[in-house]
Specification:
The complex is a heterodimer of chains A (240) and B (416). Chain A contains 7 helices and 9 strands, in the order E-E-E-E-H-E-H-E-H-H-H-E-H-E-E-H. With 240 residues, chain A is of the alpha/beta class. In chain B, a hairpin with a 2-residue loop joins strand 3 and strand 4. Classes of the chains: A alpha/beta (240), B alpha+beta (416). Chain A: Keywords: ATP-binding, Nucleotide-binding, Transport.
């Protein structure tokens, strides 16, 4: 089965994500994998909505693409690099430079300031201080974040603010791929829609490939490329 | 950036960090102070006598001779004749000779009969001469020069009269009360047994042991003439010799040991002091072992703190990994934090110890005769600090490796 998120594929010829015969088992003693994807491709600049029921393997796939999990058969290619075959150190370096991740819980370091949360990501991604300043100046108004909040500890921010800081952190290195996992689950519908608009505008601006994971059917309206994890996962079982 | 993050992380765990910091400061302070006192005690011991090439006494044993002649401990088994002293003094290799006569005491402090050569030639520490803090050296038979400790403990000043007792017991039944001595001078503190010694003239020692009638006659003659050393002693306990050339020490020692007219034994104080310190090496070793145990316990405390903090920091570490920190960076982060903590503890410990020794120096010298230099910033301390840091680095390997190996998924799963 060859599933390609097809909008714009005529215009985009560079592959951002290529998954081929990738399997993953949580319990390594089992024979049958929890997740098996035969063939899936996402082109550079595409915005893909990955939907599916809870426990269907969306987050597992996102973690495999982020290098947080290591597939049992190593067949993930990101931006032309055999990502899943890289050493752990190279995976860390690749992730820092090319991948932004926004988690459901945002995963900010609560005891350091907003600015330092962003600067740390920039530091690991090798982005210079001038560029960080420039990108932040660009991002903050779009994310409705004031410069005053930069000095605040991330743990003291509201959920909405944390969510926007998490995006700022994920985008600070101008990543080629942005992986977003259910970031709107704590938001009301108005805030959710506003967030989605900002996210898509920023991804367009930075020409970032977006993989947006959610089980919320309302969000699929923001995307033209939609993939159901159930169609991708040949293993067809509950993953988590 | 990572240094600043390490500091933020330490601040975030301030309660447990402060407790560990206090524990480290206490442990390092104890370690440093024990080591400093050990080194200072050894130095203080070795500086008891200086520039004396040979000590000559009756044959007994070199430690016995050293103990009674330098440390005023114990008693000579027998004396050497005055004739032997004059012979030694007249040898061409001998530059100066100090006779010493022991056997009496004053309220628990040993009395040492000697000549004015003692104040001229006896040195301690790094060839430091004796200095009078007040008064002058004795000029008449019944004058005495007392050590700093004697003056302080017994509240004596120049002009005070003291009565010498027969024997060396703290309480004596036979006092030489017919012939009191007048304090003519008080020596500045030296940190040596000199501080606890009452120095009198050899003639004075001889006089107080005269029969009562002869003593009375001598005192009346003394008061009319004021002459010093009108009595020549028949014997002395020991003689300290300074030689013209250090090269002749061995030769002279051999000839003195083979002296036929009197039974003599010559020892080199440096060699005897080293032998004596060897005897006390057990105490030194115990101090070293205590120091090592203190260091080990404090470092284990540090490791326990770091390892337990790793549990609460699992998520923080996983987040750092997700935003691109390599395991190597996390390893360095844990290492930096530990070394920052230990480094700060060392600095605070050194400052506290410096201050403590500065403030307590007088009390230690007065109470225990310990002259501890307040300057703790020595090469030895520097080496010890580096050892502590290296050991801290070594023991931090465990939590640092734990951070290195932290599984990303398991740490983030609770939040995903």
């Amino acid at each position: 089965m060859n599933l390609t998120s097809d909008t714009n594929k005529d215009q985009q010829n560079e592959l951002a994500i290529k998954v081929e015969n990738m399997s993953y088992k949580y319990d390594k003693t089992r024979i049958k994998p929890d997740l098996f994807i035969a063939d899936w491709q996402v082109y550079a600049g595409q915005h893909v909505f990955l939907k599916g029921e809870s426990g269907s393997g969306k987050t597992t796939l996102l973690n495999l693409l982020a290098g947080v999990l290591v597939p049992d058969s190593r067949e993930i290619t990101l931006l032309g690099e055999p990502f899943s075959q890289l050493s752990p150190q190279k995976i860390d370096a690749f992730r820092a430079k090319h991948i932004g991740v926004v988690y459901q819980q945002f995963n900010l370091i609560p005891f350091v300031s907003v600015l330092k949360n962003v600067q740390l990501a920039a530091h690991f991604g090798g982005t210079c201080a001038d560029q960080v300043e420039q990108t932040l100046a660009d991002l903050l108004p779009k994310l409705a974040l004031s410069t005053d909040c930069l000095g605040q500890a991330a743990g003291q921010l509201s959920v909405g603010q944390q969510q926007r800081v998490a995006i700022a952190r994920a985008l600070i290195n101008h990543p080629d791929i942005l992986l977003v996992d259910e970031p709107t689950s704590a938001l009301d519908s108005a805030a959710r829609d506003a967030f989605m608009q900002v996210l898509l505008v920023l991804c367009n601006k930075f020409n970032t490939t977006l993989l947006f994971v959610s089980h919320d059917p309302h969000l699929q309206a923001f995307f033209t490329d939609r993939v159901n994890i159930a169609e991708l996962n040949i293993a067809q079982g509950d993953v988590i | 950036m990572m240094l600043s993050f390490a500091w933020d992380s330490i601040k975030n765990r301030r309660k447990s960090v402060v407790l560990t910091f206090i524990s480290l400061v206490i442990s390092i302070s104890v370690l440093m102070s024990v080591e400093h006192i050990r080194v200072q005690a050894k130095e203080s011991f070795n500086r008891t006598v200086s520039d004396v090439d040979l000590i000559v006494g009756a044959p007994s044993g070199q430690l016995n001779l050293l103990l009674y002649s330098v440390f005023r401990m114990g008693s000579p088994t027998s004396n050497i004749s005055w004739q032997s002293f004059t012979t030694l003094n007249e040898l061409e290799q001998v530059k100066w000779a100090i006779p010493i006569s022991l056997g009496d005491s004053h309220r628990g402090y040993r009395v040492l009969g000697t000549s004015s050569a003692y104040f001229e030639h006896f040195k301690y520490g790094n060839q430091q001469p004796l200095v009078l803090s007040s008064g002058h050296a004795f000029t008449t038979t019944f004058e005495t020069v007392i050590g700093a400790d004697v003056a302080k403990r017994l509240n004596y000043v120049v002009g005070s009269k003291i009565i010498i007792a027969h024997g060396i017991a703290a309480v004596s039944f036979k006092n030489h009360d017919q012939s009191p001595f007048v304090v003519s001078g008080i020596l500045a503190p030296t940190g040596t047994p000199v501080d606890k010694t009452v120095h009198v003239t050899l003639a004075g020692i001889e006089a107080i042991h005269l029969p009562s009638a002869q003593l009375k006659a001598f005192i009346s003659q003394q008061s009319s003439t004021g002459a010093l050393r009108t009595l020549t002693p028949s014997s002395v306990s020991a003689v300290m010799l300074g030689l013209e050339s250090k090269m002749s020490v061995f030769t002279l020692q051999r000839s003195i040991n083979n002296y036929q007219t009197d039974r003599l034994m010559a020892i080199m104080p440096g060699v005897a002091l080293a032998e004596l310190w060897q005897l006390m090496s057990m105490v030194e070793n115990i101090l070293i072992i205590i120091s090592i145990l203190i260091l080990v316990s404090s470092l284990i405390g540090l490791a326990v703190m770091l390892l337990s903090s790793m549990r609460e920091r699992r998520r923080e570490i996983a987040i750092l990994r997700v935003i691109g920190a390599s395991p190597r960076v996390l390893f360095s982060l844990i290492m930096t934090e530990a070394l920052l903590l230990v480094g700060a503890s060392i600095v605070i410990s050194l400052v506290l110890l410096n201050l403590s020794f500065f403030l307590l120096g007088g009390w230690l010298a007065a109470s225990y005769g310990l002259f501890i230099d307040a300057n703790i910033y020595t090469l030895n301390t520097l080496i010890l600090s580096v050892v502590v840091l290296a050991c801290a680095g070594l023991i931090t390997l465990f939590p640092a490796i734990d951070a290195y190996r932290t599984a990303l998924h398991s740490s983030l799963s609770s939040t995903m």
